[in-house]
Amino acid sequence: MSHKAGFVNIIGNPNVGKSTLMNAFVGEKLSIITSKAQTTRHRILGIVNGEDFQVVLSDTPGIIKPAYELQASMMGFVKSAFEDADILIYMVEIGEQELKDEAFFNKITNSKIPVLLLLNKIDTSDQEQLETQVQLWANKVPNAEIIPISALTGFQVKEVFDRIIELLPESPPFYPKDQLTDKPERFFINETIREKILIHYKKEIPYAVEVDTEEFFEEDHIIRVRSVIMVERETQKGIIIGHKGSALKRVGVEARKDLEKFFGKQIHLELYVKVNKNWRSNQNQLKRFGYNN
Ligand SMILES: Nc1nc2c(ncn2[C@@H]2O[C@H](COP(=O)(O)OP(=O)(O)OP(=O)(O)O)[C@@H](O)[C@H]2O)c(=O)[nH]1
Ligand SMILES: [Mg+2]
Fold this sequence. Notes:
36% of the residues lie in helices and 24% in strands. With 293 residues, the protein is of the alpha/beta class. The longest helix is centred in the last third of the chain and has 18 residues, at 246-263. It is globular, with a radius of gyration of 20 Å. The model has no long low-confidence stretch (mean pLDDT 96). The structure holds guanosine-5'-triphosphate and magnesium ion (MG). Residues 12-19 are annotated as: G1. It comes from Mariniflexile ostreae.
């Protein structure tokens, strides 16, 4: 029996719905999703296995002009996603006009591999706007196949997946058939906590935060976790903790609920906050947190 497999890498501007789409394909919440830009900071694999296929999806950070080391590393992940793709998914959202980074945009328009341009969030548009947008992107990226979708409602998501399978090259699988992702358990704990921080704190705070899980003990019926929330400055520490610890407590309660669903087990989650001065601009710290490319 023939077997198909390959890398399908999702790229695009921040906040267009890349992570929502990957989670929809995989059927698990591998990537965190919020209404804020720059939610995703890593390249995260989501693997969909069938008897005669393996689709290795990559969710990537939204494309930005990097202003500090962390963002430069995030763009390194995007770059790597261009290098090993068998199929590129370029996601745009309704109303969007351009990809801000010209070099990346040229890579897309000159791509030798198939490009699926997914016009997302069409649940928020009408027919007329949709037609104008399809025309706009057909002119800008003539080498792409344009498919309007809604990653949120699932509209046309199955059709995109079927098209991916058609386009996939013949190949043996790259990963064991029961593998879902390339990231370890601790990564999903860090990300779930960071999602709650993105949701509950304003302005610069979420962008100054990194989460590191220092302890992870799995017992029969419970997983015991201790994670540190790192901020860049003393003032941010106070804001994260909140009045009598109430803000931090809310993060802990909400993250624990999500993690219990994700792991299917009771979770004991201990959180504390630490200042790690300017970690976003420190190469060694970034390497330690997995931003090494
Ligand atoms: N209305 C609508 N909203 C959507 C759709 N897809 C995603 N969203 C919302 O758009 C926001 C961003 O979604 P994400 O999946 O986090 O976007 P992203 O491209 O991964 O963002 P970054 O990781 O920051 O680059 C969230 O609030 C989603 O719920 C859609 O099809 N329709
Ligand atoms: Mg994302």
